Amino acid sequence: MSEVVLSPKAYIKMVFHAAKYPHSAVNGLLLGSKSNKTEVVDAVPLFHQCLYVTPMNEIALIQVESKAASDGLQIIGYYAASENFYDNTIDKVPAIKIAEKIAENNGSACVVVIDNKSLCTDMKHSGLKVWQSNDGKWAKAKHSLSDSKNTVDAVSLLLQRGAMKELNDFDNYLDNTENDWTNQNLNFDLKKILAMH
Fold first, then answer.
1. Taking the CA of residue 158 as centre, how many other CA atoms within 13 Å lie in the half-sphere pointing to its CB?
2. Which conformational region is residue 19 in: left (phi greater than 0), alpha (psi within -120 to 50 degrees), or beta?
3. Which residues, listed in sequence order, are joined to residue 111 by a DSSP beta bridge?
């Protein structure tokens, strides 16, 4: 197993998704390049309502896979945050079958669980727990966050400002197709914020 490296952009989207819907379980997909390294370069927020609705998951997976391929990326993992404050292990991950399907297609797929207890407006560490597929089983994985100190500080500042309200997930898109699930506007803002911080 290799170390899972998370980009600031992927990390911020995951945390924003959990922070925008603290009353709900949330999930999403992790994207990486088509290489042997497990480097998460982006995250796609999927659901906060329809986590277990198979047709919605299938539609989302097809669209995300197509968009990722056009950007030279592939789906390499899954992330989730449970609605229960204490459910922060892989055994409690909502809709884990999505992660298992990803692992069938990518032997080094990873699952990131957001530790709800760590999310606050003055975060000290990333608050993520990571597992990686190893011979068909999930094993705890070493992980790191690129530019960790600056990224965690920037996320704390952005959460204080309420920036997570700008994030759209696939549920938002299904409610209104003008809600961009790729979060292109947010991507641009994140680049500026991280560069300034």
1. 31
2. alpha
3. 78, 131
More confident residue, 131 or 117: 131
Contacts of 40 (CB under 8 A, 6+ apart): 4, 5, 6, 7, 10, 30, 31, 32, 76, 77, 110, 112
Convert the pLDDT of each residue in 3-12 to its tens digit.
899 999 999 9
**Strand order across the beta sheet in which 4-6 lies:** 137-140, 128-134, 110-114, 73-81, 26-33, 39-47, 4-6, 143-145
Residue 54 has pLDDT above 60, yes or no: yes
Task: Quickly state the pLDDT bin for 64 (edges 50, 70, 90).
Answer: very high
pLDDT at 125: 83
Q: What is the DSSP string of 64-133?
A: HHHHHHHTTEEEEEEEEE-SSTT--SGGG-TTHHHHHHHHHH-TT-EEEEE-GGG-STT-SS--EEEEEE
- Copy the structure tokens of residue 49: 């309502």
Whole-prediction pTM value?
0.91
Q: How far is CA 81 from the centre of its chain?
A: 9
Geometric angle at alpha carbon 32, from 75 and 15, rounded to 5°: 85
